């Protein structure tokens, strides 16, 4: 069977370059660069976050299986060169001038907050008539123009668009070729303002298939009025990306972050964002100081691409970390809390291996791949019931659930797991079994089938 030619579009780029690298040190000609001679972690890094973490393993797996040929990937990346070539993959970077970037970012945040139910509906209702929305549309138009140009050069079989930031792209491509949208955040039509519904419906209807992350979101998508092919597909990771570090690596990692080699700690892995609920974890810990004086809380994560200097430069991640550090001081638990910022994969593996259990305290969460990561390391997890991954949880068997505002329940769960090693181990083993449905091997079959189905429709 002939290999498929596809174009992928995400807001977040696969690779983020450090300041000055793109201009001064990239190998090859500036319009067609490679990573030759550059050092990962010094000159560039792979973007953190679920979207890019999912897409690259999928591309590689489908290329290994002969499903995909060379893939073109278009993203917003103002710090990158126009094109970067990797084996079997060509990255195309879109750039916007700073004023337009800021306006685009403001609109993106309004949409994100509204869909998550945190934005004021009255303020959001007029968004489509705002100057900021014009820049959001301009960014999508620039992206669509680049994709159309690439299509003329490479004659793609289909377009795979990822997440709400790129929602208008489907209608802008002006092509009869199949288009798939993967919606990564929660989908709840009841929080979308009435004034948005006609526009959002028209955007969704421009796609031949819309993929959401849970059965609940799929029901909501159809209730909202989407008449096309709706697909539930759990997000996924590549287990091969998660290794078991050596004893010396694990020891050096915990010591680097001020932890003792044998000291017990719970782990929260999330970007710095109020939606992630780290403040609730802090408040729960503050009530446990007397009962578990040696237990510490490790918060891993920095900002997203939107908050980075290489991205939209939205400053909420820095403000939120400062607020959390202040809160820890006010609660009298600064000595029990460790903020690591961004960590390498090796360090993250070490922290998973050494923690007692993990906590996902999000107020709302599109899915929660960190729970899958925790399970791959056979670690027990405490998870908010507002996370999409809750669909996979059998309470008490592979994880513990609680409502995000029920801090008393969170404290009980922490106390239970901290004092029961046998239960943690049993729960971690059950979690690893549950994680099988969220692996790239499992997803590759579903993704490949979907691509063939939309092409044959």
Describe the structure.
With 457 residues, the chain is of the alpha/beta class. The protein folds into two domains: 250 residues, Rossmann fold, CATH 3.40.50.2000; 199 residues, Rossmann fold (3-Layer(aba) Sandwich), CATH 3.40.50.2000. The protein is 40% helix and 17% strand. The protein contains 16 helices and 18 strands. An eight-stranded mixed sheet has the order 7-8-6-1-9-10-11-12, with helices on both faces. A hairpin with a 2-residue loop joins strand 3 and strand 4. The longest helix is centred in the first third of the chain and has 24 residues. The radius of gyration is 22 Å and the shape is globular. The mean pLDDT is 91.
Topology:
Layout: E1 6-9, E2 15-17, H1 21-24, E3 27-29, E4 32-34, E5 44-46, H2 50-64, E6 71-76, E7 83-86, E8 89-94, H3 98-115, H4 121-124, H5 131-154, E9 158-162, H6 169-172, E10 179-182, H7 197-205, E11 209-212, H8 215-224, E12 229-232, H9 247-256, E13 265-269, H10 278-286, E14 296-300, H11 316-331, E15 337-341, H12 345-354, E16 357-360, H13 369-376, E17 380-384, E18 400-402, H14 407-418, H15 421-434, H16 440-456
Parallel strand pairs: 1-6, 1-9, 6-8, 9-10, 10-11, 11-12, 13-14, 13-16, 14-15, 16-17, 17-18
Antiparallel strand pairs: 2-5, 3-4, 7-8
Helix pairs in contact: 2-16, 3-5, 9-12, 10-11, 10-14, 13-15
